[in-house]
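Translate structure to sequence.
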């Protein structure tokens, strides 16, 4: 399958490496507005740098959007005009207006639109996403590195959106109330805590932080009526605690969630099946992330 890439920054280069390792894909080329970077990538990876977006789109069956979030909305609309399959790195867009417009304009779109919420493919939590029930509370904590790539991006759209997506998938209930707090005085905010209260009674507490000085953290604690589940998404470790026993599972580091995600994208196209995270799910996660930040701005 012929695929083209929009955006070859640090994350775009990860996509190139992974796509090259998947025999089902043939990278036709890429587009990036940075001329110097484009020349470097063209020489290093031996793939064609396109100067014209439409020319690249026309020559591909599918497009992989790994460019800055602010470019996603217009790229999606442009690619949709040519009726191509799309893989879009999260977040799918950067505002509720864009989200609303995409839902309205693409609700009957036939090709596959898959959005890159890569934690859905983390083996540590895949069982919980499908099977867990009777959840009472969830606590998630995520600490990420603050760098030039994300320093101007909302932390809710950059980091918290991962946990928003996982939690809304597990609870399968509408959000009734949002409470949010930040002790940051400057914007963009780099530390947020919030509570999501769902219609079914589940309460989820989310904490995210970006820093230049500490290690990354990606943990989740889920309390159900009959058990507790403690998950370390980074270390690939899970502990299940019931009344009578405690079980610890360690998952392989050899599994690459990004590769699994892109392989699944190909399979969904081949079989014309609904992706794990499509247009509706991705736009919902964006809307919740923006609502959380709005709550903080109102306080």
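Result:
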């Amino acid at each position: 399958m012929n695929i083209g890439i929009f955006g070859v920054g640090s994350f775009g280069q990860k996509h190139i490496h992974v796509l090259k390792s998947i025999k089902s894909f043939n990278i036709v080329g890429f587009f990036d507005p940075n001329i110097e970077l484009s020349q470097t990538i063209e020489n290093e990876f031996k793939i064609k740098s396109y100067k014209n977006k439409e020319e690249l789109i026309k020559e591909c069956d599918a497009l992989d959007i790994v460019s800055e979030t602010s470019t996603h909305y217009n790229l999606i609309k442009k690619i949709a005009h040519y009726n191509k399959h799309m893989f879009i790195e999260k977040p799918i867009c950067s505002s509720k207006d864009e989200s609303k417009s995409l839902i309205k304009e693409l609700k009957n779109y036939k090709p596959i639109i898959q959005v890159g919420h890569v934690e859905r493919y983390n083996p540590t939590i895949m069982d919980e996403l499908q099977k867990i029930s009777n959840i009472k509370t969830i606590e998630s904590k995520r600490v990420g590195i603050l760098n030039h790539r994300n320093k101007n991006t909302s932390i809710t759209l950059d980091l918290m959106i991962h946990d928003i997506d996982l939690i809304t998938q597990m609870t399968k209930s509408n959000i009734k109330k949002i409470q949010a707090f930040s002790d940051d005085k400057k914007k963009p905010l780099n530390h947020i805590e919030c509570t999501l209260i769902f219609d079914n009674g589940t309460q989820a507490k989310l904490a995210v932080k970006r820093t230049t000085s500490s290690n990354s953290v990606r943990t989740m604690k889920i309390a159900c009526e009959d058990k507790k589940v403690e998950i370390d998404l980074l270390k690939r470790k899970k502990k299940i605690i019931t009344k009578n026993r405690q079980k610890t599972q360690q998952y392989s580091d050899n599994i690459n969630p990004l590769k699994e995600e892109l392989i699944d994208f190909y399979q969904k196209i081949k079989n014309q099946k609904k992706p794990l995270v499509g247009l509706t799910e991705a736009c919902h996660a964006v809307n919740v992330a923006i609502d959380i930040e709005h709550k903080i701005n109102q306080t």
